[in-house]
Amino acid sequence: MDALARLGARLAEQQTKGLYRRHRMVGGPQQVRLQMDGRQMVSFCSNDYLGLANHPDVKAAFIRGVQQYGVGSGAAHLIAGHSRVHQQLEEELAEFTGYERILLFSTGYMANIGVLSALTERHDVIYQDKLNHASLLDGGLQSRAKMKRYPHADVESLRYQLKNEMAVHGLVVTDGVFSMEGDIAPLPDIVSIASDRGYMVVVDDAHGFGVLGARGQGSVDAAGLNKAHISAYMATLGKAMGTFGAFVAGSQAVIESLIQFARSYVYTTAPPPAIAEATRTSLQILRQDEQRRLRLHDNVGYFRSVAAELGVDTGRFATAIQPVRMPDVESAIGVQRIMERRGYLIMAIRPPTTPQPCLRITLCSEHAHNDIDGMLDVLTTTLKSMGV
Ligand SMILES: *Cc1c(COP(=O)(O)O)cnc(C)c1O
Question: What is the distance in A from the centroid of ligand 1 to the CA of 201?
């Protein structure tokens, strides 16, 4: 078989398995009422949990940033791309998270790759929850440390594995809120088990930052923990913050190590300064407009209680991510299609992204109870008609 024929065969196999991925096209801004492939839909699949992606103040800050700093950053952070506004955002995030220092990354994917490589050496070990985000798993594989995985949120198994572990230095790495299940990680147990061995704990809080905790500081704060327990706290800015990029919070030594050793930090162009200006405004809104977070949590609670009344099995935790498990890929895709025809956008998630196919429903501060009622009504009818 020649090279192109081999690619063709692999692509055909993906289609047969029902795993083929395709682009959809969004016409207007990212918001609950979304124009998708030319049609108006009610979206339940965005990570823009606080409705900041199209917030007038965030947009105005972005435009102001462009006027002041232009568009491109022109260089890597360590060459000539680190602008004053990047620095200001880092300082403001340090204050908000309570960490000594912050480092901005271009994306969360790159932050995770950088953290896991920069904080380990050969002969070290990295323990990861089996359902951690793909970027953490890739980061572990790219590092020189040995990577081991423990069953999802299974602290007894982690305890047992660490008891028998020979490596002197190691990391325990977990999502704060798991991106597909919406579960909150058992952080206090993980911290206590890791600290018995002197291992560092790394948390990826892409779905917790801006959402959990009394002030939106994330899953670590919500668990009553802080910088004394979590050595590197990563969060993304493209989700609840509504902009783009990511940051890592840590001690001076951790952040300096990233600057020196994280290749995904050193060898890439700094994000546009205007993005940092927009994010500063998002952060300000997060600090001042508590109502957004309260509305999000109200919607999560409302969704969970109505779903329970209707007999729909949702996530185990009250986070913005609420999966509805499906018996197989075909029914997951079938339900997604029918929902779409009725004007509701929810995503079927297939292996290998999750072990079991599911419909991933995400809630946002900008949903009305009405939207949730309408979606659940169509969903229950559809599930019943399909015998699921
Ligand atoms: C989205 C996500 C990332 C990647 O962040 P990007 O900024 O989109 O690259 C990393 N970890 C988790 C858990 C995520 O959900």
Answer: 18
